[in-house]
């Protein structure tokens, strides 16, 4: 298994929401993990699930493929499905009368995993070590921001439109992308270094990540590099 290092440097406030509210504190809170799960006092820090990162890379890969970035290797659509996986049918299809028939429309109906495996992106190890020793500092990673909708006619805030979000300050997260060299070569890539470089090129298309991207949140720079041997 070959591993590439992925690094995302956020340039603005950002958050990847949990979909849950936090009562009177905020209408939305970001995904977090506990640095010291066995301790009485948790040290909560931000992270980005690998599934989220994979989705952003997949979208960028499709854009790159549609613009001929992988014409020297093969069909971009085939590469996308092989690298990122192919989902099975939706529940409606599974319950349809014809779902059990053997035909081309039901091929791969259980889905197929991709060759790329994305880890959760986490704060740098040195930052994590510092926060374990200075747990009170972890709260400095977060801020709360408010927004409201404005009535175009009156120029005042609309009733019940005030929203408050917990966001994360600009910082750098790291993670990995792992894959099997033999599988990658079977697609036409020269090897792990070739794929890593191409993923780094694709990463340039990802300029925002997380929620409220159209409002300036989540601006970032992503790089993918070869994992240094230790």
General description of the model:
The protein has 230 residues and is α+β, with helices and mostly antiparallel strands. The protein has one domain (2-86, 110-149, 169-226). 25% of the residues lie in helices and 22% in strands. It has helices at residues 50-66, 76-84, 91-94, 125-133, 181-186, 192-203, and strands spanning 2-10, 32-34, 44-46, 85-86, 112-113, 117-118, 122-123, 142-147, 163-168, 172-179, 220-226. Strands 1, 6, 7, 10 and 11 form a five-stranded antiparallel β-sheet that branches. A two-stranded antiparallel ribbon has the order 2-3. Helix 1 (50-66) packs antiparallel against helix 2. Residues 91-97 and 99-108 have low confidence and may be disordered.
Shape descriptor reads globular
Mean pLDDT: 84
Helix content: 10-25%
Q: Which quaternary structure do these chains form?
A: single chain
Number of domains: 1
Secondary structural class: alpha+beta
The radius of gyration is 21 Å
**Low-pLDDT segments, ≥5 res:** 91-97, 99-108
Helix/strand order, N-terminal first: EEEHHEHEEEHEEEHHE
Q: End-to-end distance, in Å?
A: 15 Å
Number of helical elements: 6
* Beta-strand percentage range: 15-25%
Largest sheet: 5 strands, antiparallel
Number of strands: 11
